[in-house]
User: Fold this.
Amino acid sequence: MTELRAGRTGEPLGIARDEARSQRPRYLDVLIGLAAFGVLAVLPLFFGSKALLDFVIRCSAFGLFATSLNLLVGYTGMISFGHGMFFGLGAYGFGLIMQRTGVPVPVAFVATLVITTIIATVIGAICVRLKEIYFAFVTLAFQMLIHSTILSWASLTGGDQGLRGGIPRPVFLGIDLSNHVHLYVTSCALLVIGLLLMRQIAQSPFGYTLRMIRDNANRASFIGIDVWRARLTIFVLAALFASTGGIVMALFVSGAYPEFAYWTISGEGIFINMLGGVTTFLGPMVGTVLLLILNDTVTRLTEYYGIVLGIVILFFAIGLRKGLMDFVVEWYGQRRDGAGERG
Amino acid sequence: MQRTRKPGISRRATLALMGTGAVTFATPWVARAQAKTIKVGMPTILSGRVAQLGTSSRNAVMLEVEKVNAAGGLAGRQIEMVIRDSKGAPQEAARVARELVNTDGCELLIDAEASSGAFAVHEVARDLGVFCIHTNSETSALTADPKQHIPNAFRTARQGVHDSIVGGSYAAAIAKTKGLKKWATCAPDYAYGRDTTGEFTLYLKRFAPDVEIISESWPKLFQPDYTEVVTKILQAKPQALYTCLWGGDLTSYIDQANIYAMFSQMEVFAVNMADYTALTVVKNLPKGIHSGNRYIKTYPATAENAAWGDAYKAKYNEYPTNWSWENATAVMLIAEASKKANSADGKKIAEAMRGLTIKSPFGADGTVTMRAEDQTLIGYAIGWGTTIPQEPYVPDVKPGDWKTILELEAEWKKSKGYA
Amino acid sequence: MDLDALTGCLASPACLVTQTTSGFIIGMLLFLVAVGLTLIFGVLKVVNFSHGAFYMFGAYFAMTAYQLSGSFALAVFCGAAGTALLGLIFERVFMSRVYGADVLMQLLVCYAFVLIFDDVVRMVWGPEFRSMGMPAAFQVAPLFIAGGVVPPYYLLLIGVALVAAVILGLGLARTRLGKVIRAAAHNPGMVSALGINTGLIYGGVFALGGMLAGLGGALAAPVRSLTPGMGFSVLIESFIVTVIGGMGSILGALIGALLIGMIRSFGSLGFPLFTEGLMYLFMVIVLVIRPTGLFGKEVV
Assistant:
């Protein structure tokens, strides 16, 4: 296990240096967020393409999911292989509440998050005391357990065929989620708000506690940090954002399917993180855009998608040995340092 | 100095990257004007364990589309198929279906998805209002449930409940003559397996009331090892076994049950046996397995059907599958409906298709009908017989009676609250 | 749930024997694949996510060799030898480049090859289901042992799996090579300093692990259908086995495999609709009580 540890505290996750430098006033984040939302919101006025809007909606769903996973993987050093269960939980929770009770959308949204909090707390309380690869295993096992439960409990979940018949979305506050543009703007808003909140978590004192736990959990507990509680808190918080991603996905496909709670979704999340890089906050978001573009273009061109994707992964894993954003940041840092020495 | 500059750079790099991405990939998003050709989109599964579903569906569609195009296309417009892999994931199926319509400009959809993928595409059809014909999902609820009903979606796949009515009455007749009272069932644990088994036993008991189910096994879909299932059934010592395993699962099961000499100890009713995907693959096919027809070129025993099977074999060097005929029928129906409406417009085709009866090599009486009330296919060839290990594999098929099927189906719909 | 069937079976000797034997059969087949996974983890500290692909290649190699030669022995040999070679190349060319890197990078490389290998099989052998067929020598009536039914072919499988277990167990414990391998697992730097080529050991262990998976695939080919992606469900089960038994422990893999076999065998009687869930539940319980698995060494 020593090697494993060396690897994990080593280069790819050694983020503290970069992060320490990236503190900036909070209002700047908010301004950037607002600007991004503004740009996204006016897009439909210039591009008539529905496919572009679809693309951004999917980016919101997977972006929320992947960025929340990075709170665990990149910031706290907890490699979860089961994060996708909360994505599925969000989709199923929201879909079931809307189909069965007919409450307004915001109520269902909040109720889904409450359910996610409860389940994530229970699962988290069991999982977070385990370390390293064993944490990964036990989260994966929980994911598979939830997936089998969804398949077996057909009277509630519809089994392997998922929630059928569409998810009703009554109009609330003038927002009609069955309207494509309304759904698009809502997804963008959820994405931007979600990213801003996660950014706040990452930059808060609590966020720095997490980094300390990642770098050396023993040292953190010596100075009086309750490691178990901190890890559980971030586990639940991350689950909430993943669940929100699941809700966006459920709205997009107008249903929920057991594949949403399958381990492949967790695998995709990890892959997105590695693709984009875990050392910058926006790395997972870049990874999401990259993976979706890759997926969409390659499936258009060939049915041997696996070979192409496999080679791209090998390029990142063996060629770059890090995510794209990590690579860019490092490359730019080297260039600038070089220039600084000359000047 | 460092503190303020570095993050700015990463942000700028991100924006630049996103900008480049947007420019590069916006090109396919520019909507295209209506062309002379008509594009037909087809989301299906071309990779993973059930890739054969997609390839044999695609083969059949291409075979028929060539004929339609040679005869002048749809109302004078040549068909161009756009076929995409969903990898069997429902969110991908939904994404691909939307993209086919919104980006590629497909005006009609042939949905060759299985299971949950078909329901996901169905929601897309509901949302976009595009003409859509489901070709592979046999789940009865897809068209039987009025909540699912939308005017623009049809189905050419066979239906679980039809198979079960015919299978149940066929099996009951044999149960009576041979005195088979104790039955076991073995079905993959997913909606198709559960529904089909439930319906089969329902009709078996209805026609042969003294039948008793003494053992049920529910292996997981795509389970590699059936040892515990085989021994469990042997333990129960039933006189007959019903199974709706299919494809590779069925062949694995037969190979594994064979070395336990299971087939000499009970009558076996395997609804999905009489399909070339299973018949040609099993090396030691036991004699005398009862099976429903999926696709075999000798049933219906007509020159048209044999010719169709041979033409397919000549072109692709393999026999058609159950999925093949279902997809071929979709193209035939679209072509006929378009001719009748004298238009390639989805709405007009849908209108013309309701209640349309066409000549078909796969019809029980030489024709198949798209029933108007629930927009699903009826009148296709359906029957049961016993297997032999070489061609023609199922020499003597007893045809099911569509009059009985329709009566019992109506009754079944009522009992489900569908009608 | 059908607890009556379960208690009924536990009360009947014939049923007890038959279900125990089938649990044993399932377990020993699983062990052959799982032991390679645990071996590779034990020495190289790599969770070989592409292990299922080696199982798949073993089956396809065996089928092709059997079709060409008609000899079952040659088919099994080709399955095992072919995957051993594949494992060696895979380790030397690709895996060896990511040993220092993050554990996620290693997983990604394996994942990339799962995707690539599945597509390669689809290109070479086609997307359809294939079946190898049972060799004529084993197309005989099953035996009755202590009231339980056992097909002769499964006796061969159990025999091979047991021989593999014994050779591995004794080989690692008693031979010089075994000692070197264990030393390399414990402290590769020191082994390397003693002038032993650790790269060769790593490659050899990976080849051995791949060979065991390929052997499992080749032996399973007569009774299981062959299709691209067939390795996946086997990988997941092997994974559960190694986690329960303890990553890196050969005895653990054996016990874990047998436990899973029994859960499947008796679970299908008592909980026919939740057999799969039962395995994951068991895995969760073991991990919570003993994170390193039943026979894994405590991690410092």
